Amino acid sequence: MSSVASSNARPAGRLRSVVTGITGTGPLHLPADAPSAPVAIAFGASVLGGRPGSFVEGRLEASLQLYRLGKAEKILVSGNQGGMSGDEIAVMTGWLLDRGVPESALLTDGAGLDTYLACRRARDEFGVERVLLVSQFFHARRAAALARHLGLDADAVRAECGCTRRAWVRNLAREYLLSRPKAALDIARGR
Description:
This protein has a six-stranded parallel beta sheet with strand order 1-8-7-2-5-6, with helices on both faces. Strands 3-4 form a two-stranded antiparallel sheet. The protein is 50% helix and 19% strand. The model is unreliable at 1-9 (pLDDT under 50). By secondary structure, the protein is an alpha/beta fold.
């Protein structure tokens, strides 16, 4: 390929990645039909009074299913260890331990403060190359776009949520107005 064609391909490829970061396109698997990977990442979110909030609980349920089905050997619990709502990592880890996941199958990252950092730290701190990203539909595809941008072989897995309509509306608004534009910026600037 000529150097001119090569230099034109890079901006076009970057633009495609930026658009993917905004739209969050790509396959979205249910736990039962997900491909296998050594690690599944359960992304943190609010915990309330030492219990997982409904979004987190859905992510933990789906991660537990992946583990029990043999689709993931380990679960990486990633979130904010010192969050305002509480220690996401302790709550999520406790939830999984209470349901029979052995400590040897758990990895914890209390510095995965946003989706990009969680994916980057999975790669850099834990040596993850192939991963299942577990979250609700609006977040999982964006997470996969960011992970692929970071060079991970990633698939998105859908978690359910027993959430109120108000929680859905609030989180969807946050996703489309704040999170996806931020993902596009992270990709565009090569964060």
